Amino acid sequence: MASIRVNARKVVCIGRNYADHIKELNNARPSKPFFFLKPPSSILPPASGPVLRPAGVNLHYEVELALIMGKSLRDLDEKDEKGALDAIDGYAVSIDMTARNVQDEAKRKGLPWSIAKGFDTFLPMSGFIPKNRVPDPYAVELWLSVDDEVRQKDSTGLMLFRIPRILAEISQCMTLEKGDVVLTGTPKGVGSVAMGSTMRAGLTVDGEEVEEGRIEVEVKEKGGLYEYEET
User: pTM of whole model > 0.85?
Assistant: First the structure.
C-alpha cells in the first residue's frame, strides 16, 4: 500500500457525483464532471496511525471508490469505455476527509478548497484491490461506519458520471499518469466524526466483502500550530 502513496503524483477528486449527496449538502447539480486535487501527502495507508483533526475543524468523512491508474492517459474520448477501463490498474476504498467549516467558508467567499481537503492524514486508503476482484465497478456497494453505526451504504451504480466520462474530463485538462489516484465521488450520508471515534469502511461485490478494501482508523487531535480562523 505504501507504493500507492509513493507512486501517486496527484490525487484527483470528482465532486457531486451522487444525486442524494448533492441534495444533502444543498449543492447545485453539475452539468458535467468537475474535480479538485488533494496532495499525495494526505494519503494515510492502512495501519499508519490515526486521522488527525486540526484544531477548530468540523471534520467530515466521505467514503469513495478510488481508481489507481496503470498507465498515462491524455485526451481520452468519453466514448472510449475500453480505453478508460484498460488504463486502470486497480481500485481502493478511500475516505475523503474534509474540514467542512473551512470548505464552507471557502465556497462562500469564492476561495479554493485546498486547505479543507489537504491536511496530512485526510485520505485514509485501503489496500490495493486487483481489477479481477471488481469485475463491474458500477456493481459495488460502498459502506462506512462510525463507532459501528453505519453512516454510508450505497451502490456505485448511482454515479451520475461514469468512469469513461470522468477520466475523459480530467485527461482533456491534465495528463493522468501511472500511479495517480482518482476518487469517483461519495454517496449520501456524509457527516461529522468526533475525536476518539473509529471509522471503518469497505466494499462488497455480489454481497461478499472484499478483504483488501477494508479500512479501520481512529480520529485523534492533530496538535501543532495550526488552528482554524476565518480568512
Answer: yes
Q: Where are the beta strands (DSSP E) in the chain?
A: 11-15, 34-38, 43-44, 51-53, 59-61, 63-69, 88-95, 98-99, 123-124, 129-130, 140-146, 149-155, 181-183, 191-192, 198-205, 208-209, 215-221
Q: How far is CA 70 from the centre of its chain?
A: 18
Question: DSSP class of residue 27?
Answer: P
Taking a C-beta distance cutoff of 8 angstroms, is the pair 191, 60 a contact? yes
Cα 179–184–118 angle (5° rounding)?
70
Kindly tell me the burial class for residue 211, based on how many C-beta atoms sit within 10 Å of its own C-beta (0-12, 13-18, 19 or more).
exposed
pLDDT score recorded for residue 27 = 85
Beta bridge partner(s), residue 155: 141
Where residue 203 falls among pLDDT bands split at 50, 70, 90? very high
Phi, psi of 166 (to 5 degrees): -60, -50
